[in-house]
Amino acid sequence: MMSFEIDGGSFRDPSGRVYSNGEEIIRVVSPNAAEEYAYARDCGFILSLIEKEQLVNTQEIDLQNLEVVVPKNGIVLRHEKIPFISYPYEWSFSLLKAAALLTLDLHIEALKFGITMSDATAYNVQFCGIKPIFIDVLSFRRYREGEVWIGHKQFCEQFLNPLLLRSIFGVPHNAWFRGNLEGIETSHLSRLIPCWKNFSFNIFSNVTLQEKIQAKATLEKEKFVSAANRVKLPKNRFESMLMGMRRWVSRLKAKDTGLSLWQNYENQTSYENTEHEAKRKFISEFCSKIKPSTLWDIGCNAGEYSEVALSGGAGRVIGFDVDHNAIELAYNRAKEKGLNFLPLYQDFANPSPQQGWANVERKSLEVRGGADGLIALAFIHHLAIGRNIPLEILLNWIVSLSPYGVIEFVQKSDPKVKELLSLREDIFSDYNQKNFENHLSLRARIIQSEIVSSSGRILYFYESQCR
Question: Which of these CATH numbers, 3.40.50.150, 3.40.1350.10, 3.30.70.270, 3.40.50.280, describes 265-464?
Answer without folding.
Answer: 3.40.50.150
